Every structure is written in C-alpha cells, then in structure tokens.
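For the sake of transparency, this paper describes our internal protein records without simplification. Because each token names a local backbone shape, the row as a whole describes the fold. One such record is reproduced below, unchanged from the form in which we store it.
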Amino acid sequence: MFRTHYDGLCRSVATYLGSRDTAEDVVQGVFARIWEDRAHWVVSDLPHYLYAAVRRRAMSQFRRAAVRRRVVPLLALEGAACAAVPPDADFEAEELRQRLERALTTLPPRTRAAFVLSRREGLSYAEVASRMAISPKTIGVHISRALTVLRKALLPS
C-alpha cells in the first residue's frame, strides 16, 4: 500500500504545500496514523480514502503554518523565545498591540467588557455571563461582534 501510493500522494499535495519535504511529512503522517489504527482500520475504496486523508492533513498543516506566521509578532511581544522572529518583530508587535487597543476603545462598553473578560482574563462564556449578569448566549453575541470589528480594524494596511 505504501509503495504503491506514496509517490502519487506526495505529488498531489507538494504543489499545495510548496515543498516536497513537507508533502512527504504529511503523507508519512497519514500512513503512520493508519499503522497505529491498523487493528480497527477498514476501508472500501483505498485510493479515495488515502487522497482525502492526505488532502485534509495538508490543509490542516497549511492552516497551522498561517497561524504561526500571524502569531510570531505576538509571541515576540510576550517575550517568548522564537528563532524565526524577524528583526523588526518587536516593532510590528507593538504596532499591532496599539492598533488592537485603539480598536477596543471603539467597541460598545458591554461588548468590550465581555471581550476583555473572555480573551484577556481567560474566563469561559458562562463565567463572563455570571459576572455581567447576562446569558452566555448574549456573551457569544458580544464576542462575535467584537471579533468582527477587530478583524476589520487589524487587517494589514
């Protein structure tokens, strides 16, 4: 199974991921997962399953890489040691933090309070709801509104 499908699977995701090495890692991860679950593993259409599993894993890897690229400046701001931090990351992180603070001031008071309690203090929606004496569903609405405003305000200019 490995020898028959390995090369085709690597080629199918290499262009998407931009690297043959990364594609090989993804394909090997799928085969490793199959090997770990071999006792319970039953599939009727092997090629279809393999290509779908590799595609899903490649998309997941692509999303994780995108998140890492966005988070690097924030990690630098928090003082985390990260070897891939560009030289101007501190400046970018500070600028991003200032833009975030300005965007937060534009939010309505209750929306801002719900966002700060949830995101900065790490409280669950239920805990925020009990502190603010409103329902958890309403907290979800406030957080959703805050995130919409913040996304628009923090888009790269």
